[in-house]
Amino acid sequence: MTAMGHDDHTLPPSSLALRIKAIETLMVEKGKIDPGAVTEIVDIFQNKLGPRIGAKVVARAWSDPAYKARLLADGTEALKELGIGGLQGEAMHILENTSEVHNVIVCTLCSCYPWTVLGLPPSWYKSAAYRSRIVIEPRAVLAEFGLQISDDREVRVYDSNAEIRYMVLPERPAGTDGWTEIQLEALVTRDSMIGVSALTAVAAG
Amino acid sequence: MRSIADMGGIQGFGPVDPADDDTRFKAEWEADTFAVNLLSLAAGCFNIDESRHSMEKIPAVEYLTTTYFEHWLHSLEDLLISKGVFSQEEYQTRIAELAAKGAGDAA
């Protein structure tokens, strides 16, 4: 169904590409969108934002206890210190994984995701299966990702929304004492910051 | 009324497929839809709650049988026309013009 409504059958269904091109060109003509802005936004999301930004934040938090304390107290402000700002003014909350608590994020209503630190979400994050099940059987879903959470460890599922986005601060792997932030950064995976994987201990490097 | 978009806790969608891992847009129209939505929000043509509501009221069968970015495109059409940013006539005329020029053939 398009916005043309149920009673209008005079035009064949227009292709998706034609529909968005029509909207884009009208928006440019009406002065609502600058020419070139669409290309610029796509470039930012496809090529500039991504989980390496989040990995830097994690490495900084592991390396600097004072920064970590600020990050957990007010994620939005602490990210600004590293030059990471909200796109739509959404607040960022950072969830710390510990030996007692494992955190995982979802958006059950759509696909709210911490774009500024992780970029665009993977397809499975937007799937009906993930959105519906992670909130009722998180341990089973995490097991499908190969992550077993022991029964004595609490699992907390955070449902993101338009105003608040979450990112998980994974546990620092054992065997990384004395590592530089650059070395630590390289260990941090996107999935560990969503909360569907953990970072395993590594051999002393 | 509970919308189909309110998926938390619904059973029967089967297992998650972690291998379905791509983060990139699958087609140019998806990227354009994403960007036009963000830019329309930034321009104040509608707000995030209106955008979400527009997608949440998509009929359940349609919601489940259309792709993720089709929901976004639906929402753009719904809000920009209902708020008078452009008219239904302007929109259909533009689609027809673009079709005549062969735009969109690639997608």
In round numbers, the mean pLDDT of chain B is 91
Tell me which protein chains meet in the greatest interface and how many residues each side has. A-B, 60 and 69 residues
- Please trace the helix and strand order of chain B, writing H or E for each element: HHHHH
Q: Structural class, from helix and strand content of chain A?
A: alpha/beta
Biggest sheet record of chain B: none
- Secondary structure: number of strands of chain B: 0
CATH architecture of the domain at 28-101 in chain B: Orthogonal Bundle
Sheet with most strands of chain A: 2 strands, parallel
- CATH evolutionary superfamily of the largest domain in chain A: Nitrile hydratase alpha /Thiocyanate hydrolase gamma
Descriptive terms for the model:
heterodimer, A: 205 residues, alpha/beta, Nitrile Hydratase, Chain A, 2 domains, two-stranded parallel sheet, two-stranded parallel ribbon, disordered N terminus, B: 107 residues, mainly alpha, 5 helices, 55% helix, 0% strand
Task: Give the arrangement of secondary structure elements.
The complex is a heterodimer of chains A (205) and B (107).
Chain A: H1 16-29, H2 37-48, H3 51-63, H4 65-73, H5 75-81, E1 91-96, E2 101-106, H6 115-118, H7 128-133, H8 138-144, E3 154-159, E4 164-169, H9 181-187, H10 190-194
Parallel strand pairs in A: 1-4, 2-3
Chain B: H1 28-42, H2 48-56, H3 60-65, H4 68-82, H5 88-101
Helix pairs in contact in B: 1-4, 2-4
